[in-house]
Amino acid sequence: MSTFRDLKVYQKAFKLAMNIFNISKSFPDEEKYGLIIQIRKSSRSVCSSIAEAYRKRKYPAHFVSKTTDADMENSETQVWLDFALACKYIDRKLYQDLKASSEEIGKMLNHMSENPESYK
């Protein structure tokens, strides 16, 4: 691995964030300063926290802290997806696909947090 961009978890998180960005373009204008900004911010924060964790990988406590930050942001993204479904901005199939992707990312982040020595 030469950069954080080579991590599969980063690639999956980036893809999810971009999917959310594109999907949220169709949300109503009244959500511009609510759901849209929140779901975009949390999904992007997963990526930035992974990048920060990668740079701190020589320091296990910092690495774990940043990977758990990424996991926290990933969980927040799931909450916003719940709202998007409840408000009928996305259909159940799309929700399930996005949620499954987020859950996979969460499992990968959990592995990183529990095995920091594997990422030195």
Description:
The chain has 120 residues and is mainly alpha-helical. The chain contains four helices and no strands. The chain starts with 7 loop residues before the first helix and ends in a 6-residue tail after the last helix. The model has no long low-confidence stretch (mean pLDDT 96).
Secondary structure class reads mainly alpha
Radius of gyration: 15 Å
- The tally of strands reads 0
Question: What can be said about the biggest beta sheet?
Answer: none
Secondary structure tally, helices: 4
Poorly predicted regions: none
Gross morphology: elongated
Q: How much strand content do the residues show? A: under 5%
User: How do the helices and strands follow one another from N- to C-terminus?
Assistant: HHHH
Rounded mean pLDDT score: 96
Helix content: over 70%
Gap between N and C termini? 10 Å
SSE blueprint:
Elements: H1 8-24, H2 32-55, H3 60-86, H4 92-114
Helix pairs in contact: 1-2, 1-4, 2-3, 3-4
